[in-house]
Design a protein that fits this description.
The structure holds 2 protein chains of 2 kinds. Chain A is mainly alpha-helical. The longest helix of chain A is centred in the N-terminal third of the chain and has 36 residues. By secondary structure, chain B is mainly α. Chain B has one domain. Chain B contains 12 helices and 2 strands. A two-stranded antiparallel sheet of chain B has the order 1-2. Chain B is globular, with a radius of gyration of 20 Å. The chains are: A mainly alpha, B mainly alpha.
């Protein structure tokens, strides 16, 4: 009996560790972008590598959790939902890493007057991810609080939509080459997608929560 | 020769094990919360313990209804019941071994012109109505209590899963014990007055009565039924009336086990009498009907949505058909056994 409780505790802390990784990755992503716009390229690259390390650690942990859930046939009725949540939150993590990777490779030349808005957009995306993680955590322990965090995530996703639209409009009103406009727009889209992915996770979470209320 | 006569009872026991173990472990196994091997082992051990330790009370009530006193009669009553149970199972009507055996005994009373104890009959028939009702009330109360507890202590989903698994095993063991105690009367009750099984004395300390030996044998047949056929029933049963989660299944099984226990526990009846309360009749009840009551109770506690009400109509149809069909079949079979095979079906 003691062994069973110990194994359950172990798996619980693995799930918490995985969610910590996603949460911390959102902060690293935000910090990385801030360094990019402050022209602190070395520190930006360091953040990008940190995020990649987090991503591979998260992948390893997620696979181990999934493996344990299947081999010990744990939470049979909710296993599909939990695996779906872990996998879709991994997509968010990957999206953040890919965005920093694209900044690192393509080194986009973004107009200086737009930098604060890009940072605002990254902050909204990062907050959407943070609240998404909180929502997933409460799914495991306190169903009644899930809705609050889902609402916050949706708020920040809408905020990121609003900011990205504003940036795109401003970009295309500038008197610069179309190729540069398009390049700047693509990076708005990259950041915006992070919040969109967090919203998708929350949609999935809302259904999973309703199932547990049944 | 006695072994041949007992075969029909053992067949009935097998059929009870095959069908009714699913009422205890069905959802646990079908949702993979508990492995079939573990479920079968626990239910077999505890059915045997329940039958041999606490099986006497409900058996006495069945004997009051009609003391089948010749082995040929016991054989025919048990066989008619087993045939009805098998037929009803094949036609997918919810069937109760209890109702079948009561119908069989009434058929024997009818054929042999023996008097039916209407007090015992009314006690038994009233439990067919009350047992699902009590199970439903237990399920509603237990469901509400558990919701309150879990909303306060905020356990992790994995902890709830572990507690549910352990609960399903413990409650399953209690349920199997209660099933054995309550339903062994259906399997071996009709042989108690007729079978000449001698008491067994092992050394100076261990004394096993003939009735207990019969109960042990019947419980073994139930175990064989559990091991050979209940897996199939467990994997298909459960979601027809209302879709149960493993935790709801735990509540349902606990409610059913309590009802089975209440109607089989001599000690509980004695306690109630000592408190000046009316005693609970010790009557074999149908675990299938109790499960249906408990599942409806859970459905109602969750707001009443998702209950497949037409299934209740099928259940009521089963209630009516089973005793009548068994009584008729038993009467016809007794006629053939007595007049064609010239076997005594009633001692003078």
């Amino acid at each position: 009996m003691k062994v069973l409780f110990r194994k359950t505790k172990e798996l619980e802390s693995q799930i918490d560790d995985y969610l910590d990784i996603v949460d911390r990755s959102a902060l690293i992503f935000l910090q990385g972008l801030k360094f990019y716009f402050e022209n602190r390229k070395d520190e930006f690259e360091q953040r990008y590598h940190d995020l990649r390390a987090m991503e591979s650690k998260g992948d390893f942990l997620r696979r181990d959790i999934e493996n344990k859930l299947y081999t010990h046939t744990l939470i049979p009725e909710f296993r599909g939902d939990v695996l779906g949540l872990l996998e879709s939150s991994d997509t968010v993590l990957n999206r953040m890493a890919i965005t920093l990777l694209n900044f690192s490779i393509e080194n986009p030349e973004i107009l200086e007057e737009l930098w604060p808005q890009y940072i605002d957009l990254a902050e909204a995306a990062s907050l959407a991810v943070e609240n998404m993680v909180k929502a997933i955590r409460t799914y495991f322990r306190d169903l009644s609080a899930v809705r609050d965090y889902i609402n916050k995530t949706l708020f920040y996703e809408k905020e990121s939509d609003r900011i990205s639209e504003k940036i795109k409009r401003e970009i295309f009103q500038k008197d610069i080459e179309l190729s540069r406009k398009a390049h700047m727009r693509v990076f708005v889209h990259h950041i915006e997608l992070i919040a969109d992915e967090a919203e998708d996770v929350c949609d999935r979470l809302a259904i999973a929560t309703a199932k547990r209320h049944e | 020769m006695i072994w041949f006569y007992l075969l029909s009872g053992l067949f009935l026991g097998w059929s009870l094990g095959a069908n009714d173990a699913a009422n205890i472990f069905g959802t646990a196994v079908s949702t993979r919360m508990v492995r079939f091997k573990i479920a079968a082992l626990i239910s077999s051990i505890f059915v045997i313990l329940g039958a041999t330790i606490s099986g006497a009370g409900p058996t006495n009530t069945l004997t009051q209804l009609g003391a089948v006193n010749a082995l040929g009669g016991s054989f025919t009553v048990a066989l008619a019941s087993a045939i009805t149970v098998t037929w009803m199972t094949k036609t997918k009507l919810p069937v109760s071994t209890t109702q079948a055996i009561v119908g069989g005994i009434l058929g024997w009373n009818w054929f042999t012109h023996s008097t039916t104890d209407y007090r015992a009959l009314s006690q038994i028939v009233s439990t067919w109505f009350f047992s699902p009702l009590i199970a439903a009330i237990f399920a509603i109360i237990l469901h509400r209590i558990s919701i309150k507890i879990f909303s306060r202590i905020k356990l992790h989903l994995l902890e709830i899963d572990l507690i549910t698994r352990i609960g399903l095993l413990l409650v399953g063991a209690f349920g199997a014990y209660s099933l054995g105690a309550n339903n062994i009367a259906n399997v071996m009750g009709v042989f108690v007055s007729a079978a000449p099984v001698k008491d067994l004395q092992l050394g100076s300390l261990i004394h096993i009565s003939g009735t207990r030996q019969l109960f042990f044998l019947g419980a073994l047949a139930i175990s064989v039924g559990i091991y050979t056929y209940s897996r199939k029933v467990m994997l298909t049963v459960g979601n027809e009336l209302y879709k149960l989660t493993p935790f709801s299944a735990l509540i349902a099984v606990l409610s059913v086990s309590l009802v089975l226990f209440i109607f089989a526990s001599h000690q509980l009846s004695v306690i109630l009498i000592s408190l000046g309360l009316p005693p609970i009749p010790l009557v074999p009840i149908s675990s299938t009907q109790a499960v249906i009551g408990a599942v409806i109770g859970i459905g109602l506690a969750k707001g009443g949505k998702g209950i497949h009400y037409p299934v209740i109509g099928k259940v009521i149809l089963g209630w009516v058909i089973t005793p009548i069909a068994t009584a008729l079949l038993c009467f016809i079979m007794l006629f053939f056994v007595q007049n064609v095979f010239e076997i005594q079906v009633m001692a003078p």
